[in-house]
């Protein structure tokens, strides 16, 4: 089964290499000023321009207000929203009435009971992203290079696709896929040389590791007698 790749927090022309050379299916741009990956809508639009039609261009926000979304849609024009704050199901429903793009909702995970939060979003979110829960004193709710126990997602069967995120890198993403069997994986810190500085070679290695994990899973499925 194919596993999509999202490279998040793109901040320069590496975005083109991530999509055209490495083959990432999603390109994420952060609109959250405390983040080292934060971009203006105009800068993100310029970086995303060569990606249009080749990848799903994702706008990542944290509890943004309507004015912020209007600016993002007027200037940047995302293909998908990733809501990485404490947005309610009602807020998601309102945003989907206002903007006609799919919405991916982040669910923070540290322990099994955190998964209970998913239920309320299944009727409104088009996709779920599981990310490591940020510490209370963190300056941002994501992009921290933190992971959680992927076994918490083993056997998870949701009515919408889910993306696995949090502390992934080229060395561990294969194991994460084997354990959690996500529809997609997402990475930021694990393909950077410094916060906000993406490494094209690391991105290529990450995608290559995902493709290898896909192939290994397909081989293991072939060995299962039908
Ligand atoms: O990336 C950020 O700086 C960020 C800031 C505020 C909210 C979310 C943020 N990133 C969200 C992502 O989708 C990251 O890719 C995800 O949290 C995984 O990050 P990492 O563990 O660094 O790979």
UniProtKB/TrEMBL annotation:
<dbReference type="InterPro" id="IPR044643">
    <property type="entry name" value="TrpF_fam"/>
</dbReference>
<keyword id="KW-0057">Aromatic amino acid biosynthesis</keyword>
<dbReference type="InterPro" id="IPR001240">
    <property type="entry name" value="PRAI_dom"/>
</dbReference>
<keyword id="KW-0413">Isomerase</keyword>
<keyword id="KW-0028">Amino-acid biosynthesis</keyword>
<comment type="similarity">
    <text>Belongs to the TrpF family.</text>
</comment>
<dbReference type="GO" id="GO:0000162">
    <property type="term" value="P:L-tryptophan biosynthetic process"/>
</dbReference>
<dbReference type="Pfam" id="PF00697">
    <property type="entry name" value="PRAI"/>
</dbReference>
<dbReference type="GO" id="GO:0004640">
    <property type="term" value="F:phosphoribosylanthranilate isomerase activity"/>
</dbReference>
<comment type="pathway">
    <text>Amino-acid biosynthesis; L-tryptophan biosynthesis; L-tryptophan from chorismate: step 3/5.</text>
</comment>
<feature type="domain" description="N-(5'phosphoribosyl) anthranilate isomerase (PRAI)">
    <location>
        <begin position="5"/>
        <end position="208"/>
    </location>
</feature>
<dbReference type="InterPro" id="IPR011060">
    <property type="entry name" value="RibuloseP-bd_barrel"/>
</dbReference>
<keyword id="KW-0822">Tryptophan biosynthesis</keyword>
<protein>
    <recommendedName>
        <fullName>N-(5'-phosphoribosyl)anthranilate isomerase</fullName>
        <ecNumber>5.3.1.24</ecNumber>
    </recommendedName>
</protein>
<dbReference type="InterPro" id="IPR013785">
    <property type="entry name" value="Aldolase_TIM"/>
</dbReference>
């Amino acid at each position: 089964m194919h596993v999509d790749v999202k490279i998040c927090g793109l901040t320069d022309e590496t975005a083109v290499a991530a999509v055209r050379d490495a083959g990432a299916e999603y390109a994420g741009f952060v609109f959250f000023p405390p983040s080292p990956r934060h971009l203006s809508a105009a800068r993100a639009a310029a970086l995303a321009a060569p990606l249009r039609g080749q990848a799903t261009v994702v706008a990542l926000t944290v509890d943004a207000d309507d004015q912020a979304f209007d600016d993002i849609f007027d200037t940047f024009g995302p293909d998908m929203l990733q809501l990485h704050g404490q947005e309610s199901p009602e807020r998601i429903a309102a945003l989907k009435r206002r903007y006609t793009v799919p919405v991916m909702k982040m669910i923070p995970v540290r322990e099994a009971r955190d998964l209970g939060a998913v239920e309320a979003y299944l009727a409104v979110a088009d996709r779920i992203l599981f990310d490591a829960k940020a510490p209370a004193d963190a300056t941002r709710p994501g992009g921290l290079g933190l992971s959680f126990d992927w076994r918490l997602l083993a056997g998870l069967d949701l009515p919408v696709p889910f993306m696995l995120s949090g502390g992934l890198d080229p060395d561990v993403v294969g194991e994460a896929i084997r354990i959690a069997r996500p529809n997609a994986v997402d990475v930021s810190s694990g393909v950077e040389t410094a916060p906000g500085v993406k490494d094209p070679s690391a991105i290529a290695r990450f995608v290559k590791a995902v493709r290898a994990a896909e192939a290994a899973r397909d081989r293991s499925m072939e060995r299962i007698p039908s």
